Amino acid sequence: MGRVVLVTGVCHDAGSRFARRIAADPAVDRVIGVDVVPPRGDLGSVSFVRADIRNPVIAKVIAGQDVDTVVHLSVQHSSERGSHGSSGGRSSMKEHNVIGSMQLLAACQRAPGLERLVVRSSAAVYGSSPRDPAMFTEDMAAKRQPTSGYAKDVLEVEGYVRGFARRRPDVAVTMLRAAEVVGAGVSTPLTDYFRLPVVPTVLGFDARLQLLHESDLLGALHHATLGGVHGTFNIAGSGMLVLSQAVRRLGRPTLPVPSFALGTVANLGHQAGVRGLSRELVAFLTFGRGVDTTRMRTVLGFEPSFTTAAALAELADSILPSPVPYPSVGRLPQPAVTTGGDHG
C-alpha cells in the first residue's frame, strides 16, 4: 500500500502544484487536497475536499480518508492567497494561519494512523536585525523577535508543532524553514517588490539575500513527505547576493531612501489600493538574512537544483524584455556567489 497524503492550502499555486506532483509519485496511493475554496486549476488525480482547517470537521476528513501523512502548506502571507483566500484582512489571515494550524494539529493528534507531518515554515522566524549572525542555524533564535505579521504567525505555529511532536513521538515531524521563494510565476511581497518599475532601497544599507527557487521548495516538500525525517531544516539555495547586485541583475533602477520612507515609496510604484511594504519586509531589505543549510544536506538529504543567483536569474528573465546583461548562471554545479561585489 502506498501513502495516503493530505495537503492543506491547495487553493494557492504552490499547494496545488505540490499536490499534483506528489500524487504522481508511485510511492503514493492517494492525495487529498483541502482548502476553503477550490483551486483555480485542475488538480488531476488529487481528490479535493472543501473544508476549513479552523473547523474541527478536519478531524473527520483525516480519519475518514485513512490519512497517514499530512503536509501543511496553508500558513501564508495574505498576498500569496489573493482572491482565493481569506478576504478579511490581516486579522482573518492570522486566524487562518494560527487557529487553523491549532485545529489541524489537534485533529492530527487524535489520528492513530498518522505517521508523518510535514510543515512548510519560513526563515522569517529568524527575523532581520543588525545583530544577526552571518548564518542562522536551526537551533538559533531571532535576535529581535517578530511582534506582528506573517513572521509572528510562523513563530506561533512552530511552537504548536513542537508541542504536537512532544505529545506524538510516534509521528515523524518535519519542519522546513524556507528562504524567500522566487521564480517566474511566484507572487510574494518580495517578488512584487522586485517587479516595481523603480526599486526603492534603504539608504546606507545593502542587505544580504539568500533565495530559494519554487521548484526546489516543491522538491524539498516532496523529499520530506516520502523520507519521514524528524527535525527542523533550513531550506535555501547555495550562495548569496546583496540587494544592489540583485536589483542590477533584474535590470531595475534604484531609488535610495531612508528606511522609514521605504514602504511609502514602494507603494507609489504599485497600482492604487495595494498596501506598502510590511515592517518585516523592510527589515529584511535593510539587513537581509542568511541561513546555514548543512543539516538540509547531511540529515534531510536534500540538495537544491538552483543556487540563489540561478533562482534570481529566472525571475529576471520573466521581468526583462531582453537577456540579462551579465554572465548566465545555470543550475548546479557552479561556484557559490559571495557578497564581495558584483561581477555580473
What does this entry show, briefly?
The chain is of the alpha/beta class and 344 residues long.
Give an overview of the whole structure.
This protein has 344 residues and is an alpha/beta fold. The protein has a domain at 3-179 and 212-235: Rossmann fold (3-Layer(aba) Sandwich). It has 12 helices and 13 strands. The protein has helices spanning 13-23, 57-64, 78-81, 89-109, 149-167, 189-194, 214-227, 243-249, 262-269, 279-287, 294-300, 308-319, and strands at 3-8, 28-35, 47-50, 69-72, 116-122, 172-178, 180-182, 199-202, 208-209, 211-213, 231-235, 241-242, 254-257. The strands form 4 sheets. Strands 3-2-1-4-5-6-11 form a 7-stranded parallel beta sheet, with helices on both faces. Strands 7-10 form a two-stranded parallel sheet. A two-stranded parallel ribbon has the order 8-13. α1 (13-23) links the parallel β1 and β2 (28-35). α1 (13-23) packs across α7, α2 packs across α4 (89-109) and α4 runs parallel beside α5. The protein is globular.
